[in-house]
Write a structure and sequence with these properties.
Shape of chain A: globular
Distance between the termini of chain A: 34 Å
Number of helices of chain A: 8
Radius of gyration of chain A: 17 Å
Number of strands of chain A: 4
CATH topology of one domain in chain A: Glutathione S-transferase Yfyf (Class Pi), Chain A, domain 2
Helix content of chain A: 40-55%
Structural class of chain A: alpha+beta
CATH architecture of one domain in chain A: Up-down Bundle
Oligomer: homodimer
Chain lengths: ~220, ~220
């Protein structure tokens, strides 16, 4: 069976899980405690990060960018990148926006500082970073709301990896009850739409020892 | 004419310049002072970052990841991503390694802290970050040296975007005289090979007001 090495609170792993599920590619999840730096895992990915996808033929693909591009080339029936060059450029621009800008300005400041830093023995949470994370969420929700009001899906006419990248970050934050859903109605409506897709079911079933999600996390009519 | 909005000390812009030149796609460079946040530029890329490529038909592509993938799809004659799925996964893994891991651990600590932060009025250089940048350069040069000794080019048999991503970061650091080339002979030999390619000429002619490169910067027999 195809294996995805992951961590449940990694938005990059969640993006890959959503892409695999939307493309109906079966896979088995395996939690990798990357901080243990297992030799066998470092042989698959010297960077020591998740996600890493290992195909049944043994091909290992490391890095969420490489995995998502690979999936679209290897399993092109359901494309998540759009058809025209312009559509594909827009999907990738937004994937990069969410994975770098949103990731650095919001997700890292909240998830890393609030929920991972201390349990991993890497120091106390930085209050200023946490406040910045909450402050940054507001303009980012406005961007998502603006895109969702301008277009059927975030990157255009079709559901794409841009939606999954955004939803991966938001679902990670939502699991930790870090999203104020009253900030933007259009963003909330878009998230409700994507959360209802069958591809999302796996994420909504996640339960992490020591950190329970709020009751609305798996509620499709939140 | 096709326009690339760039900054000369951005490794992400340099990667795109190398890809364009290697694929023999003519373009005009235009410096974008991103900190001025020009409305016309923000309309091209709301993230406000370079590089942004604007094609003659008006199509604007923002983000170095989106641009490089676009170039390979729009101008496939000279591919920089390899042929097989495995080759392409390896190229992308390494592009991500250099653009994120090397970028965060080395380039940002040195170029940003030493040469950009103060001139842009964003505070004094952080000595600890600079020391970390120099310390991190050593293992990264060993990785490059190891790859260069194991394979004809960093990602495999063919020159690829992985070589250009690595060379983009190193050439930025080298312009600022931040590379100790005695650290690894194999890495130095590989850099000498890629630096000699015609695609590199534009980078070697860069001259930035107020920051002169060391004499070996443009020397092909350094």
């Amino acid at each position: 069976m195809r294996i995805l090495y992951h961590l449940p609170l990694s938005p990059y792993c969640r993006k890959v899980r959503l892409a695999l599920a939307e493309k109906r590619i079966p896979f088995e999840l395996r939690v990798e405690r990357v901080w243990e730096r297992r030799d066998e895992f470092l042989a698959l990915n010297p960077a020591g990060t998740v996600p890493v996808l290992v195909e049944e033929n043994g091909l290992a693909i490391a890095d969420s960018y490489a995995i998502c591009e690979y999936l679209d080339e290897a399993y092109p029936d359901i494309s998540l990148f759009g058809r025209t060059l312009a559509e594909r450029a827009e999907v990738r621009r937004l994937v990069s926006w969410f994975d770098t800008k949103f990731g650095e300005e919001v997700t890292r400041n909240l998830i890393w500082e609030r929920h991972l830093k201390r349990p991993l023995g890497l120091g106390n949470p930085d209050g200023a970073a946490i406040r910045a994370g909450y402050a940054n969420l507001k303009p980012h929700m406005e961007v998502i709301g603006w895109l969702a009001e301008s277009r059927p899906w975030l990157a255009g006419q079709q559901l794409s990896l841009a939606d999954f990248a955004a939803a991966a970050h938001l679902s990670t934050l939502d699991y930790a009850n870090d999203v104020d859903w009253t900030l933007n109605g259009a963003a909330r409506d878009w998230y409700s739409r994507i959360k209802s897709r069958p591809a999302f079911r796996g994420l909504l079933q996640d339960r992490i020892s020591g950190l329970s999600p709020p009751s609305h996390y798996a509620d499709l009519d939140f």
